[in-house]
Here is the input.
Amino acid sequence: MKHAGLLSLLMMVGCTQSSETAERDKLTTHVGKYDPPPQGLTRVKVGVPQFKVEKTTLPAKDELAKDASDQLTTLADKTDRFRVIERGQMDQLLKEQGLEGIVDPEELAKPGRVKGIDFLFIGKITNMRVKGEGSHSDWSVLIVGGSSSNAKITVECGVDIRLVDPTTGEVLCGEFGEYKRTDTVSAQGVRIIGLGGGSSADLHIDEDSRGKILRLALDDAVRKMLPRCDRRLMERQK
Here is the structure.
């Protein structure tokens, strides 16, 4: 009887874990999967400088800004519309040409030709927050060397991206993306590593979780932006 009870318990745990894993997988099944580009569209070369971070409750803003640039680099490549320069190479190109000041998240401070690049993706994180549902003291108890799979959190992330002609400062196309979801930690597929300051139950997450949330918000922006980008890129090729 004991063995039968243990087996039943293990089966229940296995089913729960399988369900949670399936739920996590659903969140990202569409990410990076886009409609093919128009026939005859020539791939243009783009660079993705470091993002600007406007608002976040997470620490390490510089790392967050770099993560966002890296995630957009990957997604832009997956559209099959762009030849993307890796962020490190992009920074080096600007430095070699004395154009570090050309990139500004609000505008192109001094428009000018960047050799080897047709367009720049200028981006900013407008908001990023992970909040525990419940009191701050409850989360202090729950977070011990990881996270509670049954505890609920709200994840929010907003981004803004624009494809800009650096020679003129013209915005070819731009869009915002948002991701917001309230669910269990396990279903969200994130790992909680600490608490923020104050009494609002703001939570800190690990690097992989941060990247996943950024991908979801950026994918939303890229997906909405592509039809307009296609039209305007095709117009320029005529």
Remarks:
- The longest strand covers residues 119-132.
